[in-house]
Amino acid sequence: MSSITSGERLILASELKEKANIELVDVSSFRWEEEFSQWRTRLQGKWNAAYECIDRHVEEGRGERVAMIYVNGDIKEEITYSKLKEETDRLAYVIKSKGIQRGERVFTLLPKTPNAYVAVLAIIKAGAVAGPLFEAFQEDAIFERMHNCDAKMIITDAELKQRVPLSKLPALEHVLIDGDGADKGAGEYHLQEELATITDEDVAQVTEWMDENEGMIIHYTSGSTGQPKGVLHAHRAIVQQKKTGEWVLDLKENDVYWCTSHPGWVTGSSYGIFAPFLNGATSLINSGRFDANEWYSYIDRFNVTVWYSAPTAFRMLKAVGGKELIERYNLSSLRHVLSVGEPLNPEIVKWGYEQLNVRIHDTWWMTETGAQLIVNLPNQTIKAGSMGRPLPGITVAILDEAGNQLPAGAVGQLAVRKGWPSMMREIWKNEEKYHSYFPYEDWYVSGDLAFQDEDGFVFFQSRDDDMINSSGERIGPFEVESALITHDAVIEAAVVGKADELRGEIVKGFVVLHPNYEESTALLEEIRLHVRGKLAAHAAPREIEVLEELPKTRISGKIMRRLLKEQA
Ligand code: PRX
Predict the structure, then answer these.
(1) pLDDT of residue 422
(2) Average pLDDT, integer, range 376-390
(3) Which residues sit with their C-beta closer than 6 Å to ligand 1?
(4) The CATH number of domain 10-30+289-463, selected from 3.30.365.10, 1.10.645.10, 3.40.50.12780, 3.40.50.150
(5) How far apart are CA 296 and CA 287, in angstroms?
(6) Does the global pTM surpass 0.70?
(7) 457 CA from centroid of ligand 1 (Å)
């Protein structure tokens, strides 16, 4: 395959397979304020994202539509919007009956099965703030998040419950256990037993009506310093999640939509729960690990039409096999494919175009932004290597260190004019951190470095800090370093991202060993597994290098991660 240059106008919009939703409206004068005020008028202070995602469809006669198709190998299950309403009503009732008040935090730690979706939506329906955790998180990662958030309840299963350090979480009052197989301790309940006694009358008034600015969901995300921060989103985020589902995902009535992210990550909630359900789509939910054959077979078996995934997944598919593998499956149902989370290489755009016969539409946004902000719309030209252009109604700028706007072509801080509907409401218990995103009043500063070309296309350059992006997952060096030094052999540690062809970056650790320990492959593997057991597989360093000492600044004694990054 010939290599292509970044910025080449690779693919033209005229090659669309069918008219895009956005083509049918005039967006030239679109303003989010107006969109917002239409919602305000319609809802009259009765906001509830779960109601908008589920109940509205049932009330408007779309209850028999399939909301979720669940697949795990040979297992297949379909859940209609009516069934989803019934299940979320009942679980919301259980949550409320345990005394959970609006605004209190209820966490979930569940595998990617329909119950994970039911749980998040039921928590929101009950007026609580949902805190979905990624299923691969281990004890320390779970503890940090639930402790910081003073979580009152967790919904989990018997197996995953073992990772929740119940005795270290004084605010935690209730544990709801999904499925069989667990002994119940104090404050622990079997979900199915609790659900069994609920009547239709019980759930008649179960939806809690919220203010648009009340908390809905909290996602913990890493920065370059400190432990992960809780990014709180309010019910108002649905305004933008719905619209981007319509315009960017281009969801239409008969689509089968597949978002490959787990609801513990923001892509898995904003675009795995809210955007598709708000638009009444049918979502494919897959469990299990990445497997190229299985993934292609899902598209084939379920006639997936719209697919939202990530560059690492596309790179893995590309690496596993070319035309020969692809030709074993019928992928012709695919109409619209999108990517997020890390730089999308021009080569991958080209691969998608030539091998899958689709354009891959990159999108840029962050946990903090709650929804897509820079996008490749289905009816516009794609420039290879660009993340796209600002969504209608969104203003993007490239700023210098003093907050001045830079001209086209100049690299600077990627910033967005604040005030879009899905902008985070706060950083949990950390006002200072929240304000640090807005150093120049009007602008949200992302921490990414980028440039914008004459046509408004934005090109990602790098992060402006030490945050690591491995396979699209955001990893904070501090969290990994903190886990590394809890191993007896490690005195000091520094962690950086090392460039990697498949994963974008991998986590690389530098350690200084205790004099009683001698470097060996076995010891380094033991240290790696130690971190994995505390945090999660994706956060464990794939490489560990032993140093005599870590490079530090002379005056403040701060570890110079940049130097180590260059060395890596
Ligand atoms: O560095 C950018 C990168 O991912 C960061 C946000 O990570 P997170 O909050 O985990 O959210 C990921 C999914 C919304 C950004 O600051 N990033 C996100 N999208 C892209 C990207 N980098 C390059 N290209 C993208 N399309």
Answers:
(1) 98
(2) 93
(3) 221, 266-267, 340-344, 362-367, 387, 446-448, 460, 463, 469, 474
(4) 3.40.50.12780
(5) 14
(6) yes
(7) 16
